[in-house]
Amino acid sequence: MRPRQAIPRLASAAFTSFVELPPVHRLLREGVSESFRQYDRELAWPDAEFFIDQAPPRIWGGVGGDSYTGWIYQQGFFAALIKSHVAGRSLSIVDFGCGYGKLAPVSTFFTGPDGRYLGIDIRQDCVDFCSRHYAALPRVAFHRSGDYNGMYSESRSAELAQSTPEREWPVAPGSVDLVLSVSVFTHLQERQALHYIEAIHRILKPGGLAMLTFHVVEEPRKPPRFRSPDKPHLLELFDFRTALPPSGFFFTSSPQTPEDAIAVNDAGLHLLIDGRFELVSLLRGSTTGGEDPFFQDIAILKKPV
Ligand SMILES: C[S@@+](CC[C@H](N)C(=O)[O-])C[C@H]1O[C@@H](n2cnc3c(N)ncnc32)[C@H](O)[C@@H]1O
């Protein structure tokens, strides 16, 4: 991924692709990663071996800026969330902006025997990686969409940036039980967010659920709840001062490249969901000052029957 010269902070540091690290760092990380994985596997319960075996080899600093702990924790968190909100088996699941496929392994508990998980992403490297790495997992597939994102697209062009998002996901309308999307609406400006919420609404079955993460800011603003004295750039990244057009209900901390980090206020969230979804619950994550055990806010939305 392209390094960001103009914004030398988390958006560059954590989201820099692993492959762009200096060779010596790559070697070190690969070695540490492999040893960690081996030792962890020796001690793990058999159930946990599955997650260790499915974790990408290049887990640190990939497209989701993830750590090993974050990777595994998020799968457990979403497994519990899905189990407690969605009934039945053979679920059809779409993971919008799947990145390196964090939720693909855990999806297999819910898609059997006849459902499927489809990960969609704009990045060819992610889709190629996922298609190879999870080839042995049952009922998972990946699709590269031709859409544009100011932070994540592999090529930058003014023409692409202005293009209307593609409507051609390989998913039939009204066919999906659950749409997951972690850390994607947090990188979408209003026009795109409205487009994708509509697309998600279209593909869901009546009664289907969407679990989408956001940064939902309150007035007066709350600082992030996490304490991270060694990462002051995080406080800057989540300081959503600049309101974005057209509504002014979307905010960024990074006016040069707004997609680096985007928040909505309550009116922005309702602009997206009202008339489309019922808000089942809103979990309040740590980056916007919430008390729930996740880093972003999670909106659980239901398409009315
Ligand atoms: C922060 S990463 C999160 C990845 C993954 N969901 C996770 O939690 O590990 C955001 C992902 O969304 C993808 N993305 C951004 N805009 C997108 C769009 N319009 N359509 C599909 N994927 C998109 C990016 O390429 C990137 O892989």
Furnish the topology, listing elements before pairings.
Blueprint: H1 10-13, H2 23-43, H3 46-54, H4 68-85, E1 92-96, H5 104-111, E2 116-121, H6 124-133, E3 140-144, H7 158-162, E4 176-181, H8 190-203, E5 204-214, H9 232-237, E6 242-244, E7 250-252, E8 262-264, H10 266-273, E9 278-283, E10 297-302
Parallel strand pairs: 1-2, 1-4, 2-3, 4-5
Antiparallel strand pairs: 5-10, 6-7, 7-8, 9-10
3D architecture notes:
This protein is an alpha/beta fold. It has a single domain, classed as Vaccinia Virus protein VP39 (Rossmann fold, 3-Layer(aba) Sandwich). It is built from ten helices and ten strands. The chain has a seven-stranded mixed beta sheet. A three-stranded antiparallel beta sheet has the order 6-7-8. Strand 2, helix 6 and strand 3 form a beta-alpha-beta unit. Helix 4 packs parallel to helix 5 and helix 8 packs parallel to helix 10. The protein is globular and about 50 Å long. It starts with 9 loop residues before the first helix and ends with a strand. The chain binds S-adenosylmethionine (SAM). The site of S-adenosylmethionine has 20 residues, from strand 2.
Brief characterization of the structure:
The protein has 10 helices and 10 strands. With 305 residues, it is of the alpha/beta class.
Q: Can you tag this structure with a few keywords?
A:
305 residues; 10 strands; disordered N terminus
